[in-house]
Structures are given as C-alpha cells and as structure tokens.
Specification:
The chain has helices spanning 3-30, 71-81, 109-115, and strands at residues 42-47, 52-54, 59-64, 85-91, 100-102, 122-124, 133-137, 151-153, 158-163. It has 167 residues and is α/β, with parallel strands linked by helices. It folds into two domains: 1-35; 42-163, no CATH class. It is elongated. The chain starts with a helix and ends with a strand.
Length: 167
C-alpha cells in the first residue's frame, strides 16, 4: 500500500469519525432536558383507632375569607411555626365571618388537631381548596390559641392527607 493511499484512507476514517461525532452531538444538543416529577406534598394515609397524629404530619391550606390583606399568609406562617406543614394559601371563594375548617369528616384526627389551634373554629362541610386540612380564616379571626396542642389520638379509623416525608 502506497503512502498516498494510506493518507487518503486515514483521512476518510477521520472524516467519518467527525461526521458520527457531529450527528451524536447534534442529537444530544437538541434533546429536551429531563423533567423532574413533582412530589406530592401529602398522601392519603389511613390511621387506626388509638394512633397518634402529630402536627408535623398534617398539611394545612389556609384561605382568606376576610377583607384583610395577607391574613391567610400570616396565619399559614403561624401554623408553620407550630410545626404544621404549609399547603396552599389564597383567597376563599366566599367571605366568612368566623374561622371555618372545611372537612367532609369532622371526626378526622387531622381536622381535630387543626381545630384545636383556633378559638371558636367551626368545622363545616366544604370543598378541598388545597391539599390537607382546609382552613378559611374569617373577619372575626384575631389569633391562634395560646395553648399549642401537639398531637391527638384517633378515636376511630380515619384517612387524612399525611405530609410526604413525615414519620
């Protein structure tokens, strides 16, 4: 094999490698970035009668049913300071005079635990506006109770939205 043929063959192999690398690089460059799956803030969990439900296991979404700006955010921050997991914050679809806890099961231990943080909160039937226990703070809301209840014991089997990652 002559020197000119070796050089031509070497250049052809190198050119082929450059083309393959360019095609592979273009495919990698134009591929979309991987998307992270959103992690749910809570998952439905069944507790048996006699089981303890703690504040760090309960997600609370707070909605403003009053005319005062920022009330839901401030209340959510206070509940978070007490150890609850913050859920959604926003405006309630309807005005409320008093504090309401919207729940389909008023005997649910998570609802009972959240209810004990408020003075004169009423548990009423309502839609799930956000994850976890839904609280609508009304016009008459002043502050949380000074006494902080850390946990409750389930009186009957119940299902609630338990915070992801809590033990």
């Amino acid at each position: 094999m002559s020197g000119a043929l070796k050089s031509a063959l070497t250049l052809a192999v190198l050119a082929l490698l450059v083309v393959v690398a360019a095609v592979w690089g273009w495919a990698a460059l134009t591929q979309p970035f991987p998307q992270d799956e959103p992690v749910a803030i809570c998952e439905d969990t069944t507790v048996t009668a006699g089981s303890e439900v703690r504040r760090d296991q309960v997600v609370v979404s707070v909605f403003n049913g009053s005319g005062r700006s920022g009330l839901a955010g401030a209340t959510s921050a206070q509940l978070s300071e007490r150890g609850f997991v913050p859920g959604d914050v926003g405006d309630a679809p309807t005005p409320a005079a008093t504090t309401q806890i919207w729940a389909s099961d008023p005997t649910n231990p998570a609802v009972a635990l959240v209810s004990q943080q408020f003075k004169k909160a009423k548990v009423v039937a309502g839609d799930a506006l956000g994850p976890g226990v839904v609280v609508v703070v009304g016009e008459k809301f002043k502050a949380l109770r000074k006494k902080q209840v850390e946990s409750v014991v389930a009186e009957a089997d119940a299902t609630y939205c338990r915070a992801t990652g809590s033990e």
